[in-house]
Amino acid sequence: MMTDCQTRMYIDGQWCGAEGKGKLAVINPATEEPCAEVACGGAADARRAIDAAERALPGWSGRTAYERADILKATADLMRQRADRIARLMTIEQGKPLAESKGETLATAAFFEWYAEEAKRLYGRIVPHHVPTKRHFVIHHPVGICAAIAPWNFPILLPVRKIAPAIAAGCTNVTRPASQTPLCLMEVFRCLDEAGLPPGVANLVTGPAGEIADVLLADPRVRKIGFTGSNEVGQELMRKAADQVKKISLELGGHAPFIIFPDVDVEQAARTAVTAKFRNNGQVCISASRFYVHPDRREEFTEAVVRFAKTLKLGNGLDDGVEIGPMFEQAAVDKTIGLIEDAQSKGAAVLCGGRRSERFERGFFFEPAVVTGLTRDMRIMRTEPFSPILPILEFTGVDDAIRQANDTPYGLASYVLTNDINTAVNMAERLEFGMVGINDFTPATAQCPFGGMKASGFGREGGIEGIEDYVSAKHVCLGVTA
Ligand code: NAP
Q1: Are 53 and 182 members of one domain?
Q2: CB within 6 Å of ligand 1 — which residues?
Q3: Mutation to probe ligand 1, out of 237, 285, 384, 387 (largest number of atoms < 8 A from CB)
Q4: Which of 206, 268, 286, 373 is deepest in the core (most CB within 10 A)?
Q5: Could you tell me the residue range of the domain that residue 96 belongs to?
Q6: Is the pTM of this model over 0.85?
Q7: pLDDT tens digits, residue range 277-313?
């Protein structure tokens, strides 16, 4: 059990236990042992956090963008100084290899820095008047108290994509982290606190998701919900937000196609496919879920993918050289096995992996799977897999690739490997996804918009777009003497 990390909630600038005094065990997925116990708050704590955010709002929104930016930038600097410590906590509670945790920590710091700068660029407009007796100004008004709810797979990046633009815009915030990954986010809140964030501007409430979310949704003082997670929960929150016409943004699931054109180096493409698919065990919303290869190159590609998948080093993410950590929880392992069994029962072939690793006595370790012989009726082809399974399919040309790729209710990320500029442009323009990675499989960065189309949600995080959800445009119409 770790004793050197923060385990309490952060409300009104104070670290505090839960009013009901409950505790929630955080499990290390590599050992299945509890690594910490955190405060388990509830409705009363959520209300206290909203009260604090309400008190802080006039002062915070009244500060200049430059003052807000200084605190955001100082937070980014502190996170970078403490990146090793934050990353270690993330690996212990989430399972991903240390290098990935460090990457997420630095990417998260970049969001604080980006929105420190965007705070200063939140320009209004002067619009030409059509009659001599009027003048028109458009200014931005902070939305108010904003809530953030996010899952465990990127435990600090996803909340901070919501917190950073909110406080940059002059809003205040209440965040509810995923139950099983609160520790590294608590360290981020430590950075905010030490960077000089005034009490109540950002609050962290741990505890049961439904109970806390219901308070956030029912309280009319909360004006915006930023949610990342599953479609089922996102739809439920959207329905509840409708009662108060509460603003909501939804970053939901995906089913990303990965299209490999025959003009690329197949060996290199296979290596890229394996890296892209098995990062974080495929537990990534933008993880590629369907790999389309031209029939002329399929055999060669499949052989190379299996070869690379078999060499991936599985183990505790804290150990040197580990490329794949444990899956997040037993339920994730069970779901993955269910997808594989369903596909096999309908004729698919598993070329490697696809079972719980026997090399480990404890921990949710799963052998990365490569699967062929897929058909549309298999569950893995219809629902978001969120698992370490690499399915290989075929396509014949650009039109066929577009048809198959877009044939999904989801529209989050998509990928194309090609050296042909015309193919690249054609695909980029016709794919119905919020992100298109061309010869790149991580299209996510602080300075660009991230988000989905269709059932993958709406709203954008990152880029200049990411702050728009946190302000309302206000038209100031000034009557003047002509
Ligand atoms: P989830 O079950 O929807 O959980 C997401 C968050 O919502 C967690 O904090 C969870 O709390 C909370 N939650 C659960 N039930 C709730 C309820 N009834 N009311 C309010 N909050 C509730 O999602 P997940 O399975 O953990 O996460 C994986 C999903 O997230 C995948 O579908 C993935 O694609 C999606 N995702 C999307 C993006 C994106 O940017 N588009 C990024 C990453 C992940 P607990 O922790 O207590 O369960």
Answers
A1: yes
A2: 149-154, 158, 178-179, 209-210, 213, 228-230, 233, 236-237, 251-254, 285, 384, 386, 412, 452
A3: 285
A4: 206
A5: 5-252+456-476
A6: yes
A7: 999 999 999 999 999 999 999 999 999 999 999 999 9
